[in-house]
Specification:
Blueprint lengths: L1 H11 L4 H10 L1 E5 L4 E3 L8 E6 L1 E7 L5 E8 L2 E3 L2 H6 L6 E4 L3 E6 L1 H10 L1 H27 L2 H11 L1 H6 L2 H8 L3 H9 L1
Antiparallel strand pairs: 1-8, 2-7, 3-6, 3-8, 4-5, 4-7
Length: about 190
């Protein structure tokens, strides 16, 4: 499992084998079954997580019990509940495996040690944080400005692999449209 992370991270940043050994020594590796929760609402998020294999979704439950999907995280991406992870407060989110998934996790203390010891990882990590913030702004803009059709087209174009792997009701939840609206869009 760690080999997948090593291949990914060395393609993104100049990470040495000694640095990889350190990262491996501080990592927690987990295998999740389909529908298994990595994080439950009310728990403190202990890890920043790299997805080596599989697919996760981050969501919240509305008062009526309906899911609002905030994010999908496929292979070679990262996920966490940033607020809970950084401030060590109870999460308002769930993170769930949508298929058999293998993840590599680091605690906040471990990541601090890694960032201090490995400048190339710190630079990579800073870039990922910036990209994540920019993606959040773009998603907010899209939700406020795009039509339902434009949201759907953007999702299919931007995330074709995720689109092929998740049921349409989850796409509808992510886009903030009803299943009926999504079905109407798809028929056009």
């Amino acid at each position: 499992m760690f080999e997948k992370f090593a291949a990914y991270i060395t393609s993104q940043a100049p990470i040495t084998s000694d640095a990889l050994d350190m990262m491996r020594s501080l990592a927690v590796m987990k295998k999740l079954r389909r529908r298994q929760l990595l994080l439950n609402e009310g728990e403190v998020c202990l890890y920043k997580t790299f997805i080596a294999k599989g697919l996760l979704k981050t969501y919240r439950l509305r008062d009526d019990g309906m899911e609002t999907i905030l994010r999908f995280a496929p292979e070679n991406s990262w996920t966490t509940d940033h607020d809970s992870f950084m401030r060590q407060i109870p999460s308002q989110h769930y993170i769930e495996a949508l298929e058999s998934t293998e993840v590599i996790c680091w605690t906040a203390d471990s990541l601090t040690k890694i960032r201090q010891a490995i400048p190339a990882f710190k630079a990579y990590s800073d870039a990922i944080i910036t990209d994540s913030l920019n993606a959040s702004y773009e998603r907010i803009y899209m939700n406020l400005s795009y039509t339902s059709e434009e949201k759907y087209e953007h999702f299919v174009t931007a995330f074709p692999e995720v689109f092929r792997r998740v049921p349409l009701h989850m796409v509808a939840s992510y886009l903030g449209v009803s299943r009926e609206t999504l079905s109407r869009i798809r028929r056009k």
